[in-house]
Amino acid sequence: MNRPLIAIPMGDAAGIGPEIVLKTIADAQTQETARCVVIGDKGVLELAGTYPGMPEVRINVIREPAEGEYAPGVLNLIDLHNIDLSRLKVGTVDGMCGKAAYEYIAESIRLANEGLADAVATTPINKESLRAGGVPYIGHTEIFGALTGTEDPLTMFEVRGMRVFFLTRHVSLRQACDLVTKDRIKDYVKRCTEALRRLGVTEGTMAIAGLNPHSGEHGLFGNEEVEQIYPAVEELRQEGYDVAGPIGADSVFHLALQGRYNSVLSLYHDQGHIATKTLDFERTIAVTNGMPILRTSVDHGTAMDIAGKGIASAVSMIEAVRVAVKYAPAFSEKIRIQN
Q1: In angstroms, what is the C-alpha Rg of the chain?
Q2: CA 191 → CA 71, 166, 194, 290, 309, distances in Å?
Q3: At 199, phi and psi to the nearest 5?
Q4: Using 50, 70 and 90 to split pLDDT, how confident is the model at 339?
Q5: Which helix (H) or strand (E) segment is 120 a member of?
Q6: Is the Cα dihedral 147, 148, 150, 153 positive or negative?
Q7: Which of 265, 275, 298, 85 is CA-nearest to residue 189?
Q8: What is the mean pLDDT of the chain?
Q9: Domain of life, per the record (predicted)?
Q10: HSE-up (13 A, CA, CB side) for residue 253
Q11: At residue 171, does pLDDT exceed 90?
């Protein structure tokens, strides 16, 4: 019973979520290290169990995690029964599935908010389905932010022990360059440092990636490093933060992977995404920080083109649960102390 309890929303019923949930629950490592509660629809999971090559699991419908039977081959399910199987078309965008996926997430957040789950590990959802279902949020981060009262959650990627934060995310590259300012960098380093502490990471140096080739070569290839990044790093050091940079983006991620840095602050979306996903696409896991609850997630989509075939890989989902288990004890202890 000392294994962390991880809440897993089933995801979009028309996508690969149900398949990778079944495979994750059947995984021996998952069973050994975590207690999992799935929030979803029993009929959809039973349907997914009929796809070619799917593992056998027994679905145990419960109302709360305390009723779960945490044994090999058992899928403990909080059944919201919100999918009409006669209407379900696997592999097709559907507002019914988007609305249901939101409800699974909301219930998983409730469990974590109330201390009934140690963390949430999310499956992929579909932005078009959410919109078609009238859900007023574009994705997971926005949903978690709204339902936990968090204004600006921080996204961290982890892969093979390398951690990457993002100064900017879903904006154009032109806008991202304009957002590389001294004040923004200082704010993010402070928030990222606090996020790492809540995860139990208290030692090591955070590296700031360079924006321009060779970090601008002292202004030869751009002035952002000279005018914004170097001053931010200097002021942060004076304030006691263990930070280095700017470090050329062509080497900083390799150095972090080797253990030189405990994390990297990527300055724009693709800079960090390319580095992590090229290293190991399936094991790149998103960790949402800055919230009162811990959330990890796969970093792939609903894969509508292969849904229903039983061939979807569960490696990323299994890894998302593993990372949640890794950080849950320290995160929960920090919350307990603060309360």
Answers
A1: 21
A2: 39, 11, 5, 8, 42
A3: -85, 0
A4: very low
A5: strand 119-122
A6: negative
A7: 265
A8: 92
A9: Bacteria
A10: 21
A11: no
Helix (H, G, I), strand (E, B) or coil at 314: coil
Mean pLDDT value of segment 320-330? 94
Contact between 108 and 39 (Cβ < 8 Å): yes
CA-to-CA dists, residue 280 to 27, 29, 101, 160, 257, angstroms: 20, 19, 27, 8, 12
Amino acid present at 255: L
With a CB cutoff of 8 Å and minimum separation 6, the contacts of 269 are: 166, 168, 169, 170, 171, 176
Task: Give the chain's domains with CATH numbers.
Answer: 1-151+291-339 (3.40.718.10), 154-287 (3.40.718.10)
> In whole angstroms, what is the distance from residue 56 CA to residue 33 CA?
20
Cβ partners under 8 Å of residue 243, min gap 6: 189, 205, 206, 207, 208, 233, 236, 237
Look up residue 12 and give its amino acid. Answer: D
Which DSSP letter does residue 169 get?
Answer: -
Residues in the chain: 339
> By CB neighbour count within 10 A (0-12 exposed, 13-18 middle, 19+ buried), where does 149 fall?
exposed
How does DSSP classify residue 135? -
How would DSSP label each residue in 176-221?
A: HHHT--HHHHHHHHHHHHHHHHHTT--SS-EEEEPSSGGGGGTTTT
Judge whether 58 and 74 are in contact, CB under 8 Å: yes
Locate 28 and state its tokens.
Answer: 């021996």
Q: Would you state the pLDDT for residue 214?
A: 86
d(CA 269, CA 139): 16
Q: What is the rounded distance in angstroms from the CA atom of residue 217 to the CA atom of residue 320? A: 39
Rounded to 5°, the CA angle 206-208-211 comes to 165
CB distance 191 to 263 below 8 Å: no
pLDDT in tens, 59-71: 999 999 999 999 9
> Which of 16, 2, 101 is closest to 317 using CA atoms?
16
